[in-house]
Amino acid sequence: MTFCYKKDKDKFDEFVKFVDMKKDTPGAVMPVLQEAQRIFGYIPEPIVDYIALKLNKPSSEIFGVATFYSQFTLTPRGEHEICICLGTACYVKGADKLLDEFCKTLNVKPGETTADGKFSVIETRCVGECGSAPVVTVDGTNIPFVKKDMIDQILFDAEGK
User: Fold this and answer.
1) Gap between the Cα atoms of 44 and 7, Å rounded
2) How confident is the model at residue 72 (pLDDT cuts 50, 70, 90)?
3) Could you tell me if 120 and 78 are in contact, meaning their C-beta atoms sit under 8 angstroms apart?
4) Is the backbone peptide bond immediately before 134 cis, with ω within 30 degrees of 0?
5) What is the pLDDT of residue 71?
6) How far is the C-alpha of 102 from the C-alpha of 99, rounded, in Å?
């Protein structure tokens, strides 16, 4: 991999150590992908190839696992993750309209990140807070009973963190 900054090399070195610890462990693909996601914030394509090489698996298998599970992303995410629950209870209470409004406000499509890298809008499935529907999760914190008129304040509060 080519590194632009020392922090990138430091991240890669940290990841190499983890992979070396796990490479002979059965079922290592998931924990290695989870660690890549944690360290890099997403799973870069060269990391998929590196994992495949170190775990002696085809890149297509690693890619298949990374794309199957929604916890992984192959594209960089924004500084703040805005996750709109589209589980049944939230959907019935208008979460699809909230998703549209977040996307319109931030000028992105679902799954995209704003041009300034500040926000990613992500569709999620049930977050287990059905009694508080519709729920939006911002950087891992659930916000219950969200209405369209709360969107500007939610984004403002996220930037203030």
Assistant:
1) 15
2) confident
3) yes
4) yes
5) 78
6) 5
DSSP annotation string for the chain: ---SSHHHHHHHHHHHHHHHHHTTSTT-HHHHHHHHHHHHSS--HHHHHHHHHHHT--HHHHHHHHHHSTT--SSPPPSEEEEEE-SHHHHHTTHHHHHHHHHHHHT--TT-B-TTSSEEEEEE---S-GGG-S-EEETTEEE-S--GGGHHHHHHHHHT-
The total of other beta-carbon atoms located within 10 Å of residue 90's CB is: 26
**pTM for the full predicted model:** 0.69
Question: How confident is the model over 50-62, as a mean pLDDT?
Answer: 96
Mean pLDDT for the stretch of residues 23-46: 93
Measured N-to-C along each axis, helices 6-22 and 29-40 cross at an angle, to the nearest 10 degrees, of 170
